[in-house]
Structures are given as structure tokens and as C-alpha cells.
């Protein structure tokens, strides 16, 4: 109930005598109302700070980067071994795409291939052998920094030599070989990781008398760095490298030496700074890999929508009747004869490819579609006879696998391998501190000094 005289004409209010005089701020200022966006800004600042700490504090997705490394290294190695009898016709002197034609094309598109340095059979055999070896070492995780760079050189050199010999799977390997060179893909499931664990356990157990000797002595890495440096000098002096690629390779070689020197002589803030820079580069490369896979599926799905055969649900029917894509004719004819199955697979493929990039924010739906895509690619390998394309796509899909699932698979494989060992070969090691593996993964000093 209002008191008399408390209202003025037009609805204005007078001060209530019972409450006392209104309190005025400094210089007669009235009470300020807090901004409704204040809490929103504070929350954004906190989220941004946490994000920056995660990006700069560690190399994210170690298991995902490891499975991608293993998958693409295995895919390319198996492909090179499968085509070993036909290697000269595919990429060598016997290729229909001759050396002069390839050299003319690479001069126009500025692609990279060390096979263009010489048309001799010996040089081709050496490059092909190095491509196989680098694939194996990358898959095993031995000297992953050097192996990933040599893997990229091998992939680009062979594929750019004969660009008409590849398919969609080769394009994926081509792209991912470049991205893997920027990742720390040997943090887990690698020979480098096993060596790091041994060094961490030795330091923790006090079994080494000179810590710097065990930590930094790396004759294999230094020898590898020196050999590659000599090859780089020879290629630069001979004028075999373009300016862009020369800059890339020299930066990688000098960066490796700088990293070794910082670890040995400046183990404080300089090493921390370089570790942060390495984490940022790794996390950025993993983000690009994720975006690339999403782009592959989204473009494939939207292009399929525009095709009349995909619209009427009969697209699968036609490749099942092509001799090049029927390794099992009876199976292909049975599948092609089921109209309902053909329609479901055709429409399901389009729906999954278009929808997958939009499901990344829902973990459960994403995992369901991811399992469906992997099953689809495994079916393509069997039904259509495209095993290397399917392996490449499954390796790319693996970047989205949950960490818990990958760790469970790793544990199961580890147990299976331990059970297969002979009884006399089983060695029970003393129990070490539970955080030794974490220390080996996060401590940059546990990584190989060179390579």
C-alpha cells in the first residue's frame, strides 16, 4: 500500500521517508547495475585459459596419432610389397608415363619427387627400398621424427612420379604423409616409447651413475642425422631441390640439431619453450587431420547426393557387375540380386557420409557412425577388391576412436603377446612407480636426442 504523496503525476516516485534518504555515491553517482554479460565474459576467459593450457601443456591425442601412424605405415608398406614385382612398370623406367613426361609435368606443377633426380634403374631401386624401409620404421615407431619425414619423401616421390597410377586411397596416403611429419606420433605404441620407459625407469631406480650420459648419449641418432645432413648438402649443391623444399628440409635438419643442443646444454626454460612449440605444432597437425577426414566425407556425401544413381538408390548395383571390382563373382551377384539390400546400402552410405561431420559433438552418435563407416570400408575391401583403399580410409577414421577403446585394445594385445611367450622367456620385472610411464611420455628428455 502506497503512502500519500508517494506518487507524482506520470508515475514518478518520491523517496519513502520510512527508508531514509537515498544513498548517493561519489559525486552524486547512483548505484550501478552489473552487466548481464559479466559472467559470460568470465566463463569465456576461464575456458580460453584452460584451452590454451591444454594445447601448450602436452601433445594431445597420443593414442590416436599412434594408430594413424601405424595404419598408414602398414598400408603403404603392404602396397609397396604387393606391387614389388610390378614396381618398374608403376613408378620406374618401365612405366608408360615416361621419365620425360613426368619431368615436364613436375616442372609445371612444382611437385616433389626425388625420382626425377636420375632416370637410372639403380636410383629407382634405392628410392623404392628406402620407401619400404621408412614405412616399416614408421609403423614400428623407430626414430619417428626421421621416419615420418622419410616416409613423406617416399610417398611423394613415388606417387608424383606416376600420378595416373593412384586412386582415392593413394590420395589419402599422400595427404596424411605430409600431416604425420608434423606430429609427435611416437608417444605410445612405439619402439621410441619403450626406450623412453627404460630410461625413465633407470633414472627413477638410481641405476645410472651419470644421468646426462644415459639421457643424451645417442650415437645412432647422431649418425643418422649426420648421414641425412650429408645427403642434404649433396642435393643442395647439385641443385636438385627447389627453393621451397630446400628451406623445408634444412629447417627440419637444423631444428633437430637445435633440439639436441638445447636438451644437452640448456635444460631449463629454452627446453621448456621448445617443448611447448612442439606440442602446439603436434596439436595443430592433429586438428588438421580431423578436419581433413571430415572434409573427405562431407564432399563425398554431397557429391553423391547430386548423382541420379545415388538418388534412386541403385548406385551400388553397377560396380558389382564390373569385372575389375568383382574378386568374388558369386558374392557380387548375390548382393546385386537383392534390390532391398542395394537400396539400403546406397542410401545408408550417403546418409552416414553427410551426417558424420555433424555428429562430432555427440560422442555416442559419432561412435555408432564411425563403426558403420569402418565396417563399410572393410566390406569394400572384400566385395569390391580394394584392400589398400579400405586400409587407408580405416586408418584415417581411426583418428576419431575413443581413447578408452584404444587403450583397452592395446592392453588386450599386450596380454595376448605375453601369453604367447615361452615359459622360460618370461621375466618378472620389479614393480616400479605408477607414474613412470607418464613421466616418460611427458618428459621431453626421454625422447631420442636425434631422429
Low-confidence stretches: 4-12, 210-214, 423-442
Radius of gyration over all CA atoms, rounded:
30 Å
Portion of residues in helices? Answer: 55-70%
What's the count of strands? Answer: 0
Our count of helices gives 19
**Element order: H for helix, E for strand:** HHHHHHHHHHHHHHHHHHH
- The rounded distance between the terminal residues' Cα atoms is 84 Å
What would the average pLDDT be, to the nearest integer? 85
Structural class: mainly alpha
Can you describe what's shown?
- By secondary structure, the chain is an all-alpha fold.
- Helix content is 65%, strand content 0%.
- It has 19 helices and no strands.
- The protein has helices spanning 38-57, 62-82, 87-91, 99-109, 121-140, 144-161, 168-180, 191-205, 211-216, 219-237, 243-265, 269-305, 308-311, 329-336, 339-355, 363-383, 387-397, 403-419, 436-442.
- The longest helix has 37 residues, at 269-305.
- The protein is globular, with a radius of gyration of 30 Å.
- Mean pLDDT is 85; it is low at 4-12, 210-214 and 423-442.
SSE arrangement:
Layout (H helix, E strand, L loop, with lengths): L37 H20 L4 H21 L4 H5 L7 H11 L11 H20 L3 H18 L6 H13 L10 H15 L5 H6 L2 H19 L5 H23 L3 H37 L2 H4 L17 H8 L2 H17 L7 H21 L3 H11 L5 H17 L16 H7 L9
Helix pairs in contact: 2-5, 2-7, 2-17, 5-6, 6-7, 7-17, 8-19, 10-11, 12-15, 16-17
Summed up:
The protein is mostly helical and 451 residues long.
Features:
451 residues; mainly alpha; globular; single chain
Amino acid at each position: 500500500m502506497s503512502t500519500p504523496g508517494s506518487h507524482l503525476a506520470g508515475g514518478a516516485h518520491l523517496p519513502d521517508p520510512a527508508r531514509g534518504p537515498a544513498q548517493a555515491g561519489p559525486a552524486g553517482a547512483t548505484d550501478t547495475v552489473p552487466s548481464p554479460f559479466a559472467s559470460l565474459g568470465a566463463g569465456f576467459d576461464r575456458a580460453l585459459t584452460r584451452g590454451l593450457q591444454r594445447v601448450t601443456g602436452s601433445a594431445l591425442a597420443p593414442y590416436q596419432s599412434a594408430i594413424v601412424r601405424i595404419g598408414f605405415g602398414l598400408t603403404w608398406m603392404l602396397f609397396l610389397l604387393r606391387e614389388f614385382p610390378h614396381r618398374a612398370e608403376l613408378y620406374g623406367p618401365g612405366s608408360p608415363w615416361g621419365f620425360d613426361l613426368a619431368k615436364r609435368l613436375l616442372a609445371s606443377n612444382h611437385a616433389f619427387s626425388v625420382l626425377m633426380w636420375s632416370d637410372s634403374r639403380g636410383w629407382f631401386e634405392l628410392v623404392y627400398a628406402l620407401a619400404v624401409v621408412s614405412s616399416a620404421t614408421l609403423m614400428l615407431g623407430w626414430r619417428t621424427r626421421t621416419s615420418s619425414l622419410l616416409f613423406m619423401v617416399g610417398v611423394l616421390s613415388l606417387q608424383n612420379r606416376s600420378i595416373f597410377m593412384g586412386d582415392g586411397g593413394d590420395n589419402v596416403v599422400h595427404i596424411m604423409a605430409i600431416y604425420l611429419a608434423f606430429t609427435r606420433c611416437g608417444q605410445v605404441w612405439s619402439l621410441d616409447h619403450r626406450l623412453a620407459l627404460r630410461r625413465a625407469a633407470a633414472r627413477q631406480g638410481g641405476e645410472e651413475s651419470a644421468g646426462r650420459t644415459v639421457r643424451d648419449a645417442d650415437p645412432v641418432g647422431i649418425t643418422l642425422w649426420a648421414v641425412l645432413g650429408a645427403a642434404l648438402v649433396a642435393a643442395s649443391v647439385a641443385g636438385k631441390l627447389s627453393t621451397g623444399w630446400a628451406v623445408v628440409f634444412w629447417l627440419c635438419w637444423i631444428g633437430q640439431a637445435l633440439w639436441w643442443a638445447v636438451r644437452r646444454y640448456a635444460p631449463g626454460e629454452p627446453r621448456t619453450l621448445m617443448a611447448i612449440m612442439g606440442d602446439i605444432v603436434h596439436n595443430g597437425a592433429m586438428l588438421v587431420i580431423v578436419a581433413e577426414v571430415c572434409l573427405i566425407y562431407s564432399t563425398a556425401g554431397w557429391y553423391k547426393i547430386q548423382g541420379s544413381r545415388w538418388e534412386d538408390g541403385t548406385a551400388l548395383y553397377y560396380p558389382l557387375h564390373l569385372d575389375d571390382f568383382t574378386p568374388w563373382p558369386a558374392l557380387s551377384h548375390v548382393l546385386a540380386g537383392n534390390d532391398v539390400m542395394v537400396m539400403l546400402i546406397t542410401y545408408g552410405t550417403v546418409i552416414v557420409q553427410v551426417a558424420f561431420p555433424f555428429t562430432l559433438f555427440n560422442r555416442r552418435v559419432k561412435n555408432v557412425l564411425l563403426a558403420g563407416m569402418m565396417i563399410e570400408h572393410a566390406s569394400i575391401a572384400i566385395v569390391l577388391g580394394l584392400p589398400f583403399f579400405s586400409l587407408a580410409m580405416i586408418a584415417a577414421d581411426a583418428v576419431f576412436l575413443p581413447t578408452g577403446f584404444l587403450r583397452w585394445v592395446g592392453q588386450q594385445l599386450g596380454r595376448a603377446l605375453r601369453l604367447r611367450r615361452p615359459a622360460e622367456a618370461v621375466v618378472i620385472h620389479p614393480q616400479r612407480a605408477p607414474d613412470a610411464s607418464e613421466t616418460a611420455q611427458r618428459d621431453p628428455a626421454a625422447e631420442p636426442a636425434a631422429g
